[in-house]
């Protein structure tokens, strides 16, 4: 086991405690009742997209694989569970040998999803599969929320680079996962060094207002920065007076100045003025980076402004109004006995309100029209129609406990762009609306 | 160093990479310019509370201390920074010896805060203090957002216990910090085993719908659970038909049944019916736990319902509409030279829009009326008026690099209750409004 595979920029011995207590008490009761070994199928899906969103983005699958691989009950963990009397001795013994030996299938990371899409399917005994519920949902609900916001921002930016700068606005390790999810969704770099260390995402950053304020004059600050970081650096020009700072920046760095950054004010207006001023000073190739409380709408509103890159923080890491997805992990089929050949029977909750689910182990495919554009998300538990066989979405991720679905973040980024491009044009609109594909159940 | 002090349920060698790249490039430029050793004061504050909120809750201070203590640049980290050319060799040498040797003061954890409250003050050389910006903000912005939601929910629950169940809706390590923050804000337990392991927060949990669906009948499932977990367990009664399930639950467990849990439907209506039914069956002491998409408003709406405990997930860990705070880390004073006796001079950004700040190293006090109720948050950088001397809010947390501000979570919980109780009555309202205290600058 390589602890670095955990997805953290840190050594972590196990993910087994990222678990709600009821998973262990259910295990204990099922072990005692003789039902723990019934073959079971759990599926991850959402009943709806966040209000107004046109599509979801699957992100975190790679981190799920890391978490599954490292899901072990170490002696210190078992001792904690014993002391706190979370479960009994037979259950502790069972946990000591735990490792997931079943199969996991799912939408590949970067794919889009819709209400009812079986995003992940975990197959094994009830005992081994039920334990993964919380950690699987934590990863997918968080990462997919950030990736969906990132994807919308990438659409709004229309090819201009997006820099992820949200670490300070979210938990320090959620920040690392957010950088990763933002990269999946189309961002090109991050300010977060831990994300660079762990995932190889390009890191960027030069200076804050504090650096200007540290020095006796803005001239001193710019000179110090250019002396040390070179003329290609990005100078922050809104500590005092923007026009004076831009003049000074070009005076100090020359027209080879890499970029200026604007972090406050009316960005549309200021960007136009700064571009004019830079051009007048001969700094035609000096870029303009803007970074103040941007979301996808603010980015879109700057489409006609002379902006070369956007830095995005708060709204990215908080999912632009939707900081989590509503993915659930539900038992959809299980055998009627622990015999290995006992057939799977579909099961589903049937009680009050909207919280019902569709039983059965499902396939999923994306139907396309003659023009190649997607027309429906098709989900079923019976035989897959022949014409959809080529359109299946679910791939193997873990086979008999072995991880088989690892891939590079570059491949995931490309998949997301391709998947989004296959959707109807209305997927590109930022405005609120219904999911761009209906989900059909066969 | 005890890695467990990091606040994670895992071994972590360092928090130094939870840092935005610009902190290191500023360091490099300041080292070269000879300004890195200027004595500096950074303050953490917010310019506003989340819209409609009456007060903020300081949470995460204990985790900040863990992060500061473990902020070291290990060889693997330095090698990463070298390979990626983030900073130059002199800077890497400087980082290899880094540890924070300055002072940190702040509002004690659990205290309430208002716009402009100097929640944390970091004093040291520019170099040593600038590096802590991102990790300090990550921790405080996240944890305080969750604690503020928790505090409102605790007010709404009016003494009934609140169970934190949000792990599946947020990043797996943000979940652990969320449990901690919820506990600070008034929750009494958590479903998250990692939070129990790391912080000693009481953990709870019994079963999910999957457990009922695993078994051939609800009767089998309830029997299995009671056999294993005892009659004091909580049976989930909304998988099929609630009335039938409640009847069955008491049949299987007897009137000693600990509790039933309802996770869907019209909770107000269902809770009343279930209470009636339990009473009719003689199960007068069987409690009712409700757990479906609750927020502070839903909790308040159940005040008159026969509910004994609330389980809260999504809305807690996402800060009930405000998943982050807007805390910033700003240089407010610095010396004009690196001489140790050079006097501090206040500094402040003065550019466009609302993003200005107030310079100077600040004290803070809460003014109270004759009835002991708070009337204003008073912040100043000059002499503190004598009548406010007893009302000061800021305490030492780190002195010359040594952590002096550690305390138990129990003490923090008690402080929060006391601090909230000292606010005007309107702080108890859930409705949107202005901060209950004005901030006065002296």
From TrEMBL, chains A, B:
**Lineage: superkingdom:** Bacteria
Record-listed E.C. numbers = 6.3.4.21
What are the protein's UniProt keywords? Glycosyltransferase, Ligase, Phosphoprotein, Pyridine nucleotide biosynthesis, Transferase
Record has Ligase as a keyword: yes
Q: Which transformation does this protein catalyse, written as a reaction? A: 5-phospho-alpha-D-ribose 1-diphosphate + nicotinate + ATP + H2O = nicotinate beta-D-ribonucleotide + ADP + phosphate + diphosphate
Q: Annotated pathway, please?
A: Cofactor biosynthesis; NAD(+) biosynthesis; nicotinate D-ribonucleotide from nicotinate: step 1/1
Which residue intervals define the domain Nicotinate phosphoribosyltransferase N-terminal in the entry? Answer: 17-141
Q: Fetch the CDD domains from UniProt.
A: NAPRTase_A
GO terms (molecular function) for this protein are:
glycosyltransferase activity; nicotinate phosphoribosyltransferase activity
Post-translationally, this protein is described as follows, namely: Transiently phosphorylated on a His residue during the reaction cycle. Phosphorylation strongly increases the affinity for substrates and increases the rate of nicotinate D-ribonucleotide production. Dephosphorylation regenerates the low-affinity form of the enzyme, leading to product release.
The record's similarity note reads: Belongs to the NAPRTase family.
Biological role: Catalyzes the first step in the biosynthesis of NAD from nicotinic acid, the ATP-dependent synthesis of beta-nicotinate D-ribonucleotide from nicotinate and 5-phospho-D-ribose 1-phosphate.
Q: What is this protein called?
A: Nicotinate phosphoribosyltransferase
- Organism encoding this protein: Streptomyces meridianus
């Amino acid at each position: 086991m390589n602890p670095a595979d955990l997805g953290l920029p840190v050594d972590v011995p196990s993910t087994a405690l990222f678990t709600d207590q009821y998973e262990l008490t259910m295990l204990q009761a099922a072990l005692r009742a003789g039902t723990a070994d019934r073959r079971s199928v759990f599926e991850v899906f959402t009943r709806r997209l966040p209000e107004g969103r046109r599509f979801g983005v699957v992100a975190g699958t790679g981190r799920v694989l890391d978490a599954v691989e490292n899901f072990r009950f170490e002696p210190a963990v078992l001792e904690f569970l014993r002391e706190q009397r979370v479960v009994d001795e037979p259950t502790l013994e069972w946990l000591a040998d735990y490792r997931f030996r079943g199969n996991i299938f799912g939408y590949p990371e970067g794919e889009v999803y819709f209400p009812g899409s079986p995003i992940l399917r975990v197959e094994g005994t009830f005992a081994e599969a039920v334990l993964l519920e919380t950690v699987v949902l934590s990863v997918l609900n968080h990462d997919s929320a950030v990736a969906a916001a990132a994807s919308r921002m990438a659409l709004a930016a229309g090819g201009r680079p997006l820099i992820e700068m949200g670490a300070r606005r979210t938990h320090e390790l959620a920040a690392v996962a957010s950088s990763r999810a933002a990269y999946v969704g189309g961002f090109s770099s991050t300010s977060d060094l831990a994300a660079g260390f762990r995932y190889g995402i390009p890191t960027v950053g030069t200076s804050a207002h504090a650096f200007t304020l540290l020095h006796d004059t803005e001239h001193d600050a710019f000179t110090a920065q250019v002396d040390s970081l070179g003329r290609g650096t990005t100078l922050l020009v809104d500590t005092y007076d923007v026009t004076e700072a831009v003049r000074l920046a070009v005076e100090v760095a020359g027209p080879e100045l890499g970029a200026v950054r604007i972090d406050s004010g009316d960005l549309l207006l200021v960007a136009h003025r700064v571009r004019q001023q830079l051009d007048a000073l001969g700094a035609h190739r000096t870029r303009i980076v803007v970074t103040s409380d941007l979301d996808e709408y603010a980015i879109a509103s700057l489409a006609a402004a002379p902006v070369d890159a956007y830095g995005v923080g708060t709204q990215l890491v908080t999912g632009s109004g939707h900081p989590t997805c509503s993915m659930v992990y539900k038992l959809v089929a299980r055998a009627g006995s622990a015999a290995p050949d006992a057939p799977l029977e579909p099961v589903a909750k049937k009680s009050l309100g909207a919280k019902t689910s569709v039983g059965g182990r499902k396939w999923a495919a994306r139907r396309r029209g003659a023009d190649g554009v997607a027309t429906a998300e098709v989900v079923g538990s019976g035989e897959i129609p022949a014409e959809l066989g080529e359109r299946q979405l679910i791939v193997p991720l873990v086979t008999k406990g072995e991880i088989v679905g690892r891939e590079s973040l570059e491949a995931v980024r490309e998949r997301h762009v391709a998947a989004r491009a296959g959707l109807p044009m209305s997927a590109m609109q930022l405005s609120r609306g219904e999911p761009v594909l209906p989900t059909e159940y066969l």
